[in-house]
Amino acid sequence: MSRAAALVPVPLLALSVVPLTAGTLRLVQLAGGPQVMPADDRFTGFPVALVAHILGAAVFAVLGAFQLVPGFRRRHLTWHRRAGRVVAVAGLVVAGSALWLTVGYAPEPGTGELLFVLRLVFATLMVVAVVLGVRAVRAHDLAAHRAWMIRAYAIGLAAGTQVFTEGVGGAVLGTGELAGDLAKGAGWALNLAVAEWVVRRHPAPRPGQARRPAVPGPEPSRAPSLSR
Fold this sequence. Notes:
Blueprint: H1 3-6, H2 9-30, H3 48-67, H4 70-75, H5 77-104, H6 113-138, H7 142-156, H8 158-173, H9 177-201
């Protein structure tokens, strides 16, 4: 495993720090802890959808980061398979709770209809990506499995990217509902663009597809035929 490949989880986990920290502080607040962040009147008592979303996102972001390291997968295949089941379930929890939060709760203050639609679209795409990824691995199509799980992870990690796109969007587009919605949408779009680049730049071999040797050797000699 190359050093660059071994460091793959580092930027992914770093990108998760802000949303996971905010989610943890929100859980502490809901549990009756100190009010270290502004209260959200949309969530009172014990909102199951929000708790499921935060816990699912934590599992998906942390375990998923290590699932994407090729050398780690090869050396710990059993762990990869077992953790993969947990990651798939966590991904469905994240996407399902996102749909629940979008439809079942009042919109976040300062957001508009565009973000409402984007959340529905990308949460649905995440569900589709996870389901197709699971179907692919059950069919032993590792290339498709890898591609779909990378896409699902990219969508799930968008909250971290949105920290930056909202900062840049605020400087370029200004404030307002539409500007904020576009900045958040840019986070999903950017992550998916990077995911597609990774999938196409480093494709996994298809089932039955042999890897070509790095240095082609001489063709095997053929025994002379005795038949005329």
